[in-house]
Amino acid sequence: MSTGTEPRDEGGAQGAGRRGPEDAGSPLITQHAAVVFLVAVIIGLSVGGLTAASGKPWPLAAIAGLTAAGVSMQPAHRLIG
User: Fold this and answer.
1) Residue 62 burial (10 A CB sphere; 0-12, 13-18, 19+)
2) By three-state DSSP, how is residue 21 classified?
3) At residue 16, does pLDDT exceed 60?
């Protein structure tokens, strides 16, 4: 007979996908990663906007912005770190 003090088994199909109490307060991404991504997005939007404003077609401006965002992540990670 169970007294209610034994640990329950949370495994199996019923416990799949649940987060335990030790994971409840952990963030999805770190603050450092969020700032690096934000800087990369701002740089990408700036480069894409300036490229579009210069008269280039929008697909070329989008590619330029995505490239600038991707290339700027490593230097931003090193500078902000």
Assistant:
1) middle
2) helix
3) no
